[in-house]
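Case study B.
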Amino acid sequence: MNRLKELISDLQDFYILSFRGVLNIFKRPFYLKDTIEQMDYAGAGSFFIILIVSLFVGMALSLQLSAELSRLGMKVYTGKVVGISVIRELGPVVAALVFTGRVGAGMASELGLMVLGHQVDTLRVFGVDPVKKLVTPRIVSSIIMLPALTIIGDAVSLFGGYYIAVFVSNQSGTLYWSSIREELIFENVFSGAIKPFVFGYLIACICCYTGLSTKGGATGLRQSTTKAVVMSIIMIIVSDFVLTRILLYVLGFSV
Amino acid sequence: MIVFDMVCFSYGSRQVIKDLNFSINSDERVAILGGSGEGKTTILKLIMGLIKPDSGKIIIDGEDITGKTENELREVRMKFSLVFQEGALFDSLNVKENVAFCLREYTKMTEDEIDRKVRELLRTVGVEHAMEFMPEELSGGMHRRVSIARSLAAYEPMMFLYDEPTSGLDPVNAENICKLILELSKDGKGFIIVTHKVVDALRVASRFMFLKDGELVFDGDSEKLLHSDIPDIQVFLSELHYAGVKNV
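Model:
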């Protein structure tokens, strides 16, 4: 019973933090400097990791599809399938997972350490709202930087797919790019572009919440960081499914 | 004036404060003694409204603060200057920015004015030379000093609250911090110091409280403390013999 009460109380606190974190965007003071610092850490800091991961994901996907499609005599569709997979599904999810591992874990451990070192209490003593000062800049930076990183990651994945299709699978580069261009329609781009905003928001809220609820010493910090990453990954996958279902319905795709 | 009226507080199922009653005037120099986990720091957090009691009332200057919201508590918190154990400096900011934190947050001072004020505060606590240092470059004693300077930056507190200000410090640094604590209360401002180091408590305080299992088992002056027959207090006082303190 106590465990259930605790869970409900945790969920309630999480929703309040998520709501206040967004509401504070429109309230003074704006903490622009903190937001820019967070954007630099989340965006510029994750840039090369996203490049490498996306490149290899695109190459692996193209390799798998070329092998399977050539067996069926449909190798010409490699570009089309790579395009749809990357733009609609893989690009946003891969970028979000990388973002969780690097930025989300960092948020949780940094805030956790601030809690344990009484820095969060110090903010409260000085009359500064910790949600406004610490959570809101992280939410804003995640909402802005994850979509940007996803777009870059998508482009690099498509390029990786192109390299394999043309130089390994001996397909026509022109055909590959024209297939990709055909898939760059509003429905595909929209369903791929909307997801990173949701993922960014979820990652920031989950990681900030678990970081700020850190208790105990080093073990508590380890637990909260692990929890932040695990919960974020689960929520990314679950919300991806839910969003895909909704978007397919809204955009008029039949399943 | 701070009044605790039948205050109880628990961390989960562990009760750390049991029916605590006391009152402290804002000009008193109080030391709260007790072992680790006896609820000493919890008392400071309760006074600042950082945690809420399970039951009982905490009255600051005639106002019950137990039901106040975070915004309402801001005014109460500005009456005190709390220095956390080990300083709690913001580790992403250098010493200057740590001290300037409240000035930037609450005042419209220019960069020059902030610089002057920060220098003045750091000079008061004796660490002006460390202005550009990052917190990880500071020694334990410097940490506490910068933290004290930071707490003085934005407003004039009515009372100082020190959480284990000398723990982990060598005797020279501990004595310097004690001197600073006395220096800052020269103009009649009181303080509450939470510590388990009876030598330091006797150096600075005139009233002593002793906590055992979340209950107040002693409240009196140094004379009464030194002649107390409470076994736990006698164990604490044995530190004086090891330290070779004859006159306190």
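Chain A has one domain: 31-244. The remaining cases will be described in the next quarterly update.
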